[in-house]
Amino acid sequence: MKVLHIESGRHLYGGAKQVLYIMEGLAQRGVENLLACPPGAHIAQPARASAQVFELPMKGDLDFGLVGRLRRLIAAEQPDLVHIHSRRGADLWGGLAARRAGVPCVLSRRVDNPEPRWLVKLKYRLYDHVITISQGIRQVLLAEGLAPGKVSCVRSAVDPKPYLIDYDPAGFKAALGLAPDALLVGTVAQLIPRKGHRHLLAALPAVLAKHPRLQVLIFGRGPLEAELRQAIGDQGLSGQVRLLGFRDDLPAVLGCLDLLVHPADMEGLGVSLLQASAARVPIIATRAGGMPEAVRDGQNGLLIAPGDVAGLAAAMNRLLDDAALRQTMGQAGRQLVLDEFSIDAMCEGNLAVYRRLLNA
């Protein structure tokens, strides 16, 4: 079996890492992988271990020429199936290219934001099957009129091995110039509006009143960086909140956090939640999208309503007040990841969809 994967992201964020996991697992199962990605995309180099990589210009939703470029690639390489993993034009133009070439096409849907029913009716005709990374996203598509037999859920996964280590919180705090007794709360997400960083900043005064030695570490980069930096200064939080950018060594430091907070308004599943759980960090997230599948309320974290600033502050204070509860939830989170979010299960789930389509 030969599969052409299309990933238009330039950075190796959660979605692109899932593509790497899938291709590595498929290669181990005898599948020949091809990857189409933008020139200079961070996925290109690591992908070469499990796929033949083709770097093509991918300029977004208005890049009509992408249809032709992908169609020529399909004609030259003759894949049995095309798997589209991202949006930003790759979904529409990749689907058209596969349809014109007469090759079965699968779309991975990683976000839970709704689309107009008329668009769903037109756009999703391009795909033979849709794979969602959570049941939450699947329910969104079903509510918009997609036939149940056309949509399967194969959850995202995380490689737990880098997080199954002994962490050194004291050394991490010392490296940041923090006191040994400081409590560390982190967020790991792109700096974009739907990740809800503004809710965290709004909740902090009520939390700092009880925990004045709290430090908040914001991992990630994105277009909101300048705006967030300004808001941190305007709200007098510069001494308690740090923007740490993108960290290549995240697995080595994530387990030093006392708590991960992810107050996103929308989220397909949340790979950073799985990573935190693997590192035995308890989580506060919202009841949006697929997050309740990664964070079981009262088991490995707490869930609040999206945008509930008071609820977020109360949940943070509850966990920061109780070290024993944090430890219990952290251990439960690691077991949840090991039991339900393995890379093998994700690869087998995708492969089962491929086989079903090709056999049909």
UniProtKB/TrEMBL annotation:
Residue ranges constituting the Glycosyltransferase subfamily 4-like N-terminal domain according to the UniProt record: 14-160
Domain of life: Bacteria
GO terms, molecular function: glycosyltransferase activity
UniProtKB keywords: Transferase
KW Magnesium (keyword) present: no
Domain Glycosyl transferase family per the UniProt entry, residue ranges: 175-335
Stored InterPro entries: Glyco_trans_1 (IPR001296), Glyco_trans_4-like_N (IPR028098)
Protein's name according to its UniProt entry: Glycosyl transferase
Organism (species): Malikia spinosa
